[in-house]
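Major facilitator superfamily MFS_1
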Amino acid sequence: MSNSTSHQSRFLHYGWVIVAVGVLVLFSCLGLARYAYTMLLPAMQTGLQLSYDRMGLIGTANFSGYLVAVVLSPWLLRRFRPRAVISAGLLLIALCMAGISQSRGFLTAALLYAFTGLGGGLANIPLMALVPCWFRSRVRGRAAGLIIGGNGLAIICAGYLIPLLNRQYAAAGWRLAWLLLAAITLLTALIAALWLRNTPAEKGLEPLGPLQPEQHGSLPVHHEQQGDGVLLLRLGLLYLAFGATFMVFGTFIVTSMVRESGFSEAQAGHYWSWVGFFSVFSGVGFGSLSDRIGRKQGLALVFLVQSTAYLLAGLKLGAIGLMLAIVLYGSAVFAIPAIMAAAVGDYLGTARAAASFATITIFFAVGQTIGPAVAGLLARSYGSFAPAYLCAAAITCSAALFSLVLPTPHRRDPA
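Tokens:
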């Protein structure tokens, strides 16, 4: 038995430290910087006198910044490595969220939120690319799912914290909320800089997880290269479908409950916190399931659950329908990124995981940039977000069918 293997068996593998820090990173870079915006929207709309379409455009500005980060990430990772890029992204988010707290109009908020999206991408993409480096195939889905649980914890936090601040500080509540979120993100940047590591080799370790016989039976190199472009396109289209739909619900469901269904902000926040609770388990649950049943079957199942959630919201079946939609949405919301992070390592190998994940994330970023903007325009035209939710259901149902025709991956972990 090698020294590194013996060390791993006696002590907690440092990969789980990477997971713990990753939870904090996702808690801040996406959970607070993006999903808390859903809770902040009603108060920001009143404070800045925003129309529905401008609310959507601020969300789109964030996603546009994220798209720029997707393009820049492969180059930055080659020059600076993941730990440095993640820490810098978190620092940028903290500064921009502090700036949003002082904004006085649409343009300032949109510009700063665009740079917040840039920081979010610079933190998230390198972090998820660390998963195939630190974990072999049998545990990748579980590891990625645990990390993504940080998003759910942030949603729970925002669901209770932001209404409390709004009640205590009235019109200034949303501004204080942005300042507090900025402080938390700044602390996370420091933790990431101190505790993240780029590869297991930096700690004298091997990736965590068992080697599998099929890892030695990969296809010949020319066949792999010939099919990889098409494979990335197929994974990218699925990620685009996810990006274009999940943030429509995630951005506007609280506003729908308050403006269209007569919920109080506190009630809507309480129900939104349910999303956070169930989403904590969405990534690890479906990620672990995909470790067992396969990535394509796992993707199809997640898309079907999401389709049901969007359909229930779009049909306006009352409070019970909305609550069921929220439970289903939360149960599956972060499963797709967890499975995708595992899938790129399975299909394309550890060495190419970072570049491959960045490539398919371009599709995701395009989807999430378009989705909220189109939803805002539909809401302005129809006076309701119901048509947008129904469109989202049709897209994810198609994605479920498309998932089932993906090929079965050949394991490419290094022996």
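The chain has one domain: 12-201+222-403.
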